[in-house]
């Protein structure tokens, strides 16, 4: 992680994190992902944060992250209720989604770091586009997008957007050793 990004995260009043499928079991081992979540928890420690994940592997729930501060709208492999299933029931995550939307309302006019880790175009309406919109309307927000291929930042964000072309699990692991 660069010093610039570390400074943004350290100086943020609040941190919004999106975790995409590049941070999942299809690309990394359980051990790598456990380290990833541990590093992320260390970065977020002491800050108001919320995490939205597209992953259904349930590893986030085994991590040191606070369960109340995370939502997985695409489902859970443990329960068999995932968005790709014909009978997907989204009602199970809606209470946490409501907590998330209340939390996000309190970020306006605050120094908000928006950290997108491995979010592609699988479900852009869940993380990618809403996070861009949040960063655009909050003039004190900075969007850091880390992805191996889809790291581009909308021109409208200007200097408040930082693209990082990297594997997010490796990126976070390299920079977390302060």
Keywords:
alpha/beta, 178 residues, 8 strands, 30% helix, two-stranded antiparallel ribbon, six-stranded parallel beta sheet
Report on the architecture of this protein.
The chain is of the alpha/beta class. It has five helices and eight strands; from the N terminus they run αβαββββαβαββα. The protein has helices spanning 3-11, 30-44, 94-105, 128-137, 168-175, and strands at residues 14-19, 49-53, 70-71, 75-76, 81-82, 112-117, 141-147, 161-165. Strand 6, helix 4 (128-137) and strand 7 (141-147) form a beta-alpha-beta unit. The N and C termini lie close together (9 Å).
Name the helicity range: 25-40%
Number of strands: 8
How many DSSP helices? 5
| Helix-strand pattern | HEHEEEEHEHEEH
The largest sheet has its strands arranged as 3-2-1-6-7-8
Rough outline: globular
> Rg from C-alpha positions?
15 Å
Q: Which structural category fits the helices and strands?
A: alpha/beta
Strand content: 15-25%
Distance between the termini: 9 Å
Uncertain residue ranges: none
Averaged pLDDT: 94
Profile the largest sheet: 6 strands, parallel
């Amino acid at each position: 992680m660069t010093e610039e990004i570390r400074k943004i995260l350290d100086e943020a009043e609040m941190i919004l994190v999106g975790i995409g499928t590049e941070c999942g079991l299809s690309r990394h081992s359980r051990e790598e992902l456990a380290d990833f979540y541990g590093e992320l928890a260390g970065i977020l420690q002491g800050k108001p944060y919320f995490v939205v994940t597209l992953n259904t592997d349930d590893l986030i729930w085994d991590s040191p992250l606070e369960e109340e501060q995370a939502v997985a709208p695409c489902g859970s492999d443990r329960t068999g209720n995932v968005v790709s299933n014909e009978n997907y029931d989204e009602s199970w995550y809606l209470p946490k989604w409501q907590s998330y939307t209340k939390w996000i309302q309190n970020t306006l006019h605050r120094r908000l770091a928006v950290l997108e880790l491995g979010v592609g175009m699988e479900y852009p309406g869940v993380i990618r586009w809403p996070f861009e919109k949040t960063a655009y309307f909050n003039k004190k927000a900075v969007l850091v997008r880390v992805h191996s291929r889809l790291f581009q930042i909308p021109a409208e964000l200007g200097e408040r957007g930082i693209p990082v072309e990297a594997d997010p699990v490796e990126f976070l692991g390299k920079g977390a050793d302060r």
